From TrEMBL:
Residues 15-245 form the ABC transporter domain. Keywords: ATP-binding, Nucleotide-binding, Transport. It comes from the Bacteria. CDD domains: ABC_subfamily_A. SMART domains: AAA. It comes from Lactococcus allomyrinae. Belongs to the ABC transporter superfamily. It holds the Pfam family ABC_tran. InterPro entries: AAA+_ATPase (IPR003593), ABC_transporter-like_ATP-bd (IPR003439), ABC_transporter-like_CS (IPR017871), ABC_transporter_ATP-binding (IPR050763), P-loop_NTPase (IPR027417). One of its GO terms (molecular function) is ATP binding. This is ABC transporter ATP-binding protein.
Length: 258
């Protein structure tokens, strides 16, 4: 298995966000949000640009400070024990930050060494992950030769090197063709079946529908609705998730603007 859970922590919530706020000077980007994720589950944060999604993700993996509230990853407090919390997180960000001077294989090895993974273990894990994301046969290709889909799969493999319990995906398939998107979705669904907890942001409704077990709709830093696709459709009497999203975000935005 790509993800291996320690038995003593398997019952912990992979992610627990409690009354979290993020302030930038006079602006509140994240406003008292609370949610959690479970093993074998994908939770999607759905919101327009500027809704507070990326600020939330950055606080979870320590790229942003938490103004108030508490975030725990596998029971470890991000404020008090960030280094341990980060060991349980894999990140697929919008920026790939791949080293153009290294090939596919070397990029993974270099990243794994930063985690302090022993060389023998790292080599085995790298080859396993390259097979998992269907890049093993091209593992010596230079980064500049890769298609967008191949780069995104490499970033996913990189995010899995530390065998994380939680994977954060920030717009993971933006700009990819439909075949590449579906290939990445298939890999993410495999990870979920193995017990990995996934936190996803995406502007693609079909992506959210394919991957997410629960959906949190975020407007102006607040979670204004939460549920499965079916419960949201039933609650708001709509035929599509897009219709639910448009109704809620337009209504709340109008109230805020007033």
């Amino acid at each position: 298995m790509i993800a291996q859970f320690a038995e003593e922590r398997i019952m912990d919530k992979p992610l627990l966000v409690s009354h979290v706020k993020k302030r930038y000077k006079n602006k509140i980007a994240v406003d008292d949000i609370s949610f959690s994720t479970n093993p074998f589950e994908c939770v999607a944060l759905l919101g327009a640009n500027g809704a507070g999604k990326t600020s939330t993700l950055k606080m979870i993996h320590g790229a942003n400070t938490i103004s108030s509230g508490k975030i725990e990853v596998m029971g470890f407090d991000v404020k008090k024990d960030l280094s341990t919390a980060k060991k349980n997180v894999g990140i697929v960000s919008q920026e790939d930050l791949l080293d153009l001077s290294l090939n596919i294989y070397e990029n993974l090895i270099a990243h794994g060494l930063c985690y302090g993974i022993k060389k023998a273990v790292l080599k085995s894990r790298t080859e396993e992950l390259l097979k998992f994301v269907d890049l093993y046969d091209v593992k010596f290709k230079e980064i500049g030769e890769l298609s967008g889909g191949m780069r995104r799969r490499l970033i996913l493999a990189r995010a899995l090197l530390n065998q994380p319990k939680l994977i954060i995906l920030d717009e993971p398939t933006t700009g990819l063709d439909i075949q590449s998107r579906h290939l990445i979705w298939d890999k993410l669904l495999e990870l979920k079946k193995q017990g990995v907890s996934i936190l996803l942001t995406s502007h693609y409704m079909d992506e959210v529908e394919n991957l997410a077990d629960r959906i949190l709709i975020v407007v102006a830093g607040k979670i204004i609705a939460e549920g499965t696709k079916d419960t949201l459709l039933k609650q708001y009497r709509k035929k599509t998730l897009e219709e639910v999203f448009l109704e809620l975000t337009t209504k709340v935005k109008g109230e805020i603007d007033v």
